[in-house]
Amino acid sequence: MGIDKEGQLKRIDYGDRVFFDATLGIAGTTYPIGTAGKPSNTIADVITICVAQNVNKISVIGTLTIGAGIAQDLVGHNSILTGQTAGAAYVRDFKGYLEIDAMVGGTLDIYADAANIQINADCTGGTINIYGNARVTGAGGGVTINNYTVNTTQLHVMDFWSDPVEEKAVTNAQVTAAVGAPVVVADLPAGATIVRAIVMMKFRMVENTNAAENSLDCTAVQPIQVDDSGSTGWVTCIDFVDEQFKIAATTREGGDVLIGDNNVAARVDGNDTYDFQWLNAKAHLANIQFNDIQMGIRIWYSV
């Protein structure tokens, strides 16, 4: 029985993907067009080569536009766009499953029509804009994801709270220090995509211990900030304004729940332990004291 040397060579050269290069590629479907050494510049030819070689991955260099007809050809192939490094790529009227893999740069615009889009963790750069009707899973590993899709999945809400801390004193000396106890976010289901996360601060009492009226001194901004267990970086979650908590001399008042209006989903992005600090905390006079503090995180997510 003879050995199909040409077939073996094709399988080696194509590997598990077909290569597209808008600038340096050439048209046609004849081997070796579509290999790394001689990429294609025509997406219709790429699809033809994918089917002929029984592969379902496309490596993209430069600008790629996938129109409705080509998008339909991709349906059923568990389509994967791999390795965008720069330029712009467009996927239009896509239905079915589309996986974005190893993206490190450029812009990818996806116009979806009942699509399931997976963004892998090895997508570390660039921007993905998603429009239309899609279920988006995966948060990438540094790529910017702008999900402008219609709300086709129900958002779920969960609250997580810290243990209480007896007291936090804000003096008339500017200090950045921990506030409250850490919040452990747990039990988010596998595949959950956090759409919005806010931070809350609950305290039973607030007291001015000074013999004169007192309030916060926000000459320097002094927000509460949140960070994850990997110390990725502090993100502002609750803002204060100058003269907030204005309290008469030597007076105690009932507490409240402060609800931040900053979406911190970029930092609160999954099950983890989250710490809090009060940046530049300062009162006009010593001291304003917060009693029986609990920190909370409210998360909206889809699955």
Residue runs with pLDDT of under 50 for 5 or more positions? none
Straight-line distance between termini: 53 Å
Mean pLDDT: 87
Number of strands: 18
Short description:
The chain is 9% helix and 47% strand. It is mostly beta strands.
Descriptive key words:
303 residues, mainly beta, Jelly Rolls, eight-stranded parallel beta sheet, five-stranded antiparallel beta sheet, 3 helices, 9% helix, 47% strand
3D structure, described in words:
Strands 1, 2, 3, 4, 5, 6, 7 and 8 form an eight-stranded parallel beta sheet that branches. The chain has helices at 5-14, 43-53, 68-74; strands at residues 18-21, 57-61, 64-66, 79-82, 88-101, 104-119, 125-137, 144-149, 156-161, 165-170, 175-178, 183-185, 193-208, 224-227, 235-238, 251-259, 272-281, 288-302. It has two domains: 5-152, no CATH class; 157-302, Jelly Rolls (Sandwich), CATH 2.60.120. It is elongated, with a radius of gyration of 27 Å. It is mainly β. The protein has three helices and 18 strands. 9% of the residues lie in helices and 47% in strands. The model has no long low-confidence stretch (mean pLDDT 87).
